[in-house]
Amino acid sequence: MKKGLDPSAGSVAALPSRLKREEYCYLTTTGRVSGRPHEIEIWFGCQGASLYMLSGAGARSDWVKNLLRHSPVTVRIAKHTFTGTARVVSDEKEDMMARYLVAGKYQEWEEGKTLSEWARTALPVAIDLTGEAA
User: Fold this and answer.
1) How does 35-45 read in b/e, with b if 16+ C-beta sit within 10 Å?
2) 105 domain residue, yes or no
3) Positive or negative CA dihedral for 76, 77, 83, 86?
């Protein structure tokens, strides 16, 4: 399941929770062919020391292909940049939590409602934060 910052570790672990209302994060992956950094703006949800994103194009998205090749990433939220390890979510409970988390934030999903097609079919990706970048 999840690895990353210990939620009880203090300010670094608590910081993403304080930033969860930000509209976007900026995910930087390493290009699988070029080796150069590639940054995207993307919706996200935050749970503990992990960020969750949904890829509407699934594993066909360049950013997903990049993180499958090179899992270390950086994520910028507002003025804070974090290091982390990216992974495709494989655990069923975590998968559903990620979908509801992101849909709740951006699509006003609430209990009793059906998830949108995008939220049901997108590929959930987790970024397990390992620290705040210098």
Assistant:
1) eeeeeeebebb
2) yes
3) negative
**Number of independent structural domains in the chain:** 1
pLDDT in 10s for each residue of the chain, 134 residues = 444 444 444 445 666 667 888 999 999 999 999 999 999 999 999 998 899 999 999 999 999 999 999 999 999 999 999 999 999 999 999 999 999 999 999 987 767 778 889 999 999 999 999 998 87
Separation of alpha carbons 76 and 53, rounded Å = 14
- Asked if residues 91 and 45 have their Cβ atoms less than 8 Å apart, the reply is no
What type of residue is 13? A
The whole domain housing 99 covers: 11-132
Q: The CATH number of the domain where 49 resides is what?
A: 2.30.110.10
